[in-house]
Amino acid sequence: MATAHSRAAARLTMAPAVVLLLGWMLIPLSMTLYFSFQRYNLLMPGDEAWIGFLNYEYFLTDPAFFAALWNTLLLVGGVLVITIAGGTALALLLDQPFWGRGVVRLLVIAPFFVMPTVSALVWKNMFMNPVNGLFASLAKGLGLPPVDFLAQIPLASIIVIVAWQWLPFATLILLTALQSLDSERLEAAEMDGAGPLDRFIHIILPHLARAMTVVTLIQTIFLLSVFAEILVTTNGGPGTATTNITFLVYAQSLLQFDVGGGSAGGIVAVILANLVAIFLMRMIGRNLDI
Amino acid sequence: MGEIVLKGVTKSFGAVSVIPPLDLTIANGEFVVFVGPSGCGKSTLLRLIAGLEDVSSGVIEIDGKDATAIPPAHRGLAMVFQSYALYPHMTVRNNIAFPLKMARLDKATIDRKVEAAAGVLNLTPYLDRRPGQLSGGQRQRVAIGRAIVREPAAFLFDEPLSNLDAALRVNMRIEISELHSSLATTMIYVTHDQVEAMTMADKIVVLNAGRIEQVGSPLELYSRPRNRFVAGFIGSPRMNFIDGTAAGEDGAATIGVRPEHLALSTTGGRWCGTVTVSEHLGSDTFVYVQADGVGTLVARAGGEFPVHHGDRVWLTPQPGKLHRFDAEGMAIAGTGQDRAGAAAAVGASNPRGSE
């Protein structure tokens, strides 16, 4: 690829992909940007006008916005903590030799293949339903009052549902990282007098650190935009208890028909996501640099 | 301190027996080398002693105490691995300090011991680097440093030099030998390289398919191999083996003679043949001869022995240096080749004298 000729050929062959990607990204982004400065409500057609930053002002001063911001952080953080801790534990278990390991590994991956709406509905109706749900039956069997999960602890319930979906992903990445650990290094630590806990803290965890940052980065990107699970379970409620930024943008533009306000919310969400991405990239850059 | 006794130790993985019943005594302060071809069970034996593998039956005693059921950390042994097995996320200082931290020693003691070990191994300037920033030889020294700070009863080395280049290997060989003389601790060293075994060992244990073929000092194995396997394994280039009628003349199924004990002559001798290759190394010349009715023989001649491809030469074993083996490959006592006639025929044919 050193000659001018081959470089030109490379540019030419890459051009369609680049143009397509740019168009795919830039056109919706600029349209959203444009709408965000417009008074544009579907209930008042023909009333469109340039209103400057008014949409942003309304969106950012809406009490629901801060609730949604906080919910988003709790959701992302909660799922990350559960999946990384649980994924590490599962990876350690699955790394042990036992009968039927291949089948069990395949089963562990299964939740990842279930689409979010389906898994959320299964959780809502089969597990968390206060009348017919499995958890309610368990509670009644123990003589306890059944918990109406999605009404009493809605955000925690959604965190559990989303964590269940993402646990296989974290387990898979951490398991492969674990398998790349040189067994001689563990044996050396064992000879050096490190017990199982010391080996975990001083050898295994540092080895997994890089995989954990990768899991954090990828999951954060997807968890910032959790939507289907909220829509089919709580619809953002009760009140705004389970409304995250993504759901707030949806509610603004498609439930209140305020396209302008929704677009402003979308731009705010893009800026927030980029802030998180920059923060994560710097953290990972430090971690990948060993 | 550091006497290791194996009594009837066996190891099998499932139905596959890797080590048949084996007895061995390693005296305190000895440098013992386990040597054998790859897959002969020498590393497994070392791992059994370390406790990283459980014996299938038998007893391992360390310092007179039964250590068979003691976990590796409490056997008082330190091991240097083939891959060094350093902790990549820790500095050299923390790598060396790790066993001491695990022993929950106080910080001042740890610092003192780490500094001392680093001093011995010339690692002081590198203490704050990570293993990834060190050369192969330095990593090897860190691995040794991590072993010596524990002041173990014995050191176990598992092919520690096999990842180093040739020049560095010779240097590290000398360093490990010097370390042994200064520490005077028992060392068990596993290698497939008979040169390492010959140069470093007080005692060599030659293993083949899990069995001990012979135990002895390097020169003992060299001059009095108990069987054909040991005779062929020790020495470089390897011993020439001659079967058939030529061996029958000496009353053996096979006779063996080392290249350095074959006298070359251009005028006369016991076996006559054609030179196929001559390797001139400067100090020595290795001459490969297709001997008539005997097969290919290798002989060592002086540095400037002028033979070339196609020359006719005569080869004669030096008196008293011929090894005889029976049909099972076991050595027959006495060197037996002192046949009056042959010895007389050799008399005049000193290769260098005949130039």
TrEMBL record, chain A:
UniProt subcellular location: Cell membrane
Keyword Transmembrane helix listed: yes
SUPFAM superfamilies linked to this entry: MetI-like
Gene3D superfamilies found in the cross-reference section: MetI-like
Entry-linked Pfam families: BPD_transp_1 (PF00528)
Membrane topology: Multi-pass membrane protein
Domain ABC transmembrane type-1: start-end pairs: 69-280
Residues passing through the membrane, by range: 12-37, 64-94, 106-123, 149-175, 208-228, 264-284
Keywords, sorted A to Z: Cell membrane, Membrane, Transmembrane, Transmembrane helix, Transport
Family membership: Belongs to the binding-protein-dependent transport system permease family.
Protein name, per record: Sugar ABC transporter permease
From TrEMBL, chain B:
Pfam families, sorted: ABC_tran, TOBE_2
Keyword Repressor: no
Keyword ATP-binding carried by entry: yes
Boundaries of every ABC transporter domain copy: 4-234
Entry keywords, A to Z: ATP-binding, Nucleotide-binding, Transport
Single GO MF descriptor: ATP binding
Ranges annotated as spanning the membrane: none
Parts forming coiled coils: none
Protein family according to the UniProt entry: Belongs to the ABC transporter superfamily.
Name of the molecule in the record: ABC transporter ATP-binding protein
